[in-house]
Specification:
Bound molecules: zinc ion
CATH superfamily of the largest domain: Ribonuclease Z/Hydroxyacylglutathione hydrolase-like
Shape: globular
Number of domains: 2
Mean pLDDT: 96
Low-confidence stretches: none
CATH topology of the largest domain: Metallo-beta-lactamase, Chain A
Strand order of the largest sheet: 7-8-9-10-11-18-19
Strand content: 25-35%
Number of strands: 19
Largest sheet: 7 strands, mixed
Order of helices and strands: EEEEEHEEEEEEHEHEHEEEHEHEHE
Length: about 325
Amino acid sequence: MSDLIRLQPEGLVGPGNRFHIDAWGKAAVNLITHAHGDHARAGSTEYWCAEPCAQILRHRLGSDVHIRAVPYRERVRLDDCWISFHPAGHILGSAQIRVEQGSRVWVVTGDYKRDPDPTCEPFEAVPCDTMITEATFGLPIYRWASTRSVTAQIVNWWQRCKEEGVTALLFCYALGKAQRVLAELTHFTQEEVLLHGAVASLTHIYREQGVPMVPTRLVSDGEGPTEGRLVLAPPSAHRSPWMKRFRSVSTAFASGWMAVRGIRRRRGYHRGFVLSDHADWQGLLSTVEESRASRLLVTHGSSDILARYLREVKGMKADALTTHFGEGEG
Ligand SMILES: [Zn+2]
Ligand SMILES: [Zn+2]
């Protein structure tokens, strides 16, 4: 029997080429796991996504795109397949996509994490025969500390910046990570945080969807003194002309990649906080187990290593799948 979902030059494709999943080329019907740039690309005729993803997708792809927003867990018919979106716990609106045809069930996880995140619905295990899983942090060295303890480290660093009279400039992905930090901060403070424009527009969408976060304000062009303030900005703003408005800064980066020794120094950040929106090694393994899948296709990151581990240690049917996900993300 041929595979329900196959890899084609333009992306993952369903039976009869009727739909794609997170296509990197043009597609007629493009099912989207979430709105990060490596998964949601422009050029498709029609986009389907989980309901809370729709507004972010529109913000990213433009107001004229055709979007069908499907509530989590609702089954939608597409030819001879049933399609449904299930929470992936990665960012607001992120979904695993379940495809059922006859007696076969495949799940494409997209990006996911198992740690609690107040900005989105928690990950749900979806039983299936075959799972296409991500493996961004698919190495045993990746083990995440609790979000609360990492947030406490951020708050301590911010406090030190106040004492030293410098601006605390925290770089993090504008979609998802920034809002997660702003939501986690509510456990420690209600002090206003300043935002780079790219972070501000997405934070506005999260607020509209009822995600509780600390008060925020856009950093203006004629901003007064910012010493002692916390500012959130995307990594692309690091060492850009935008930074010239701040007199003396302490810079930090919040990302799972900060677990890798040397990356922080190479990228020139003063501090690194290990905060990831992906599953760690143990999270990947328990997800594979909970899915009860008999076959695994591993993509997005350390796919060869996780696939080999599943084969050789767990005795599972597992292969790596080469896709374009995970480029410039983490
Ligand atoms: Zn992502
Ligand atoms: Zn990704």
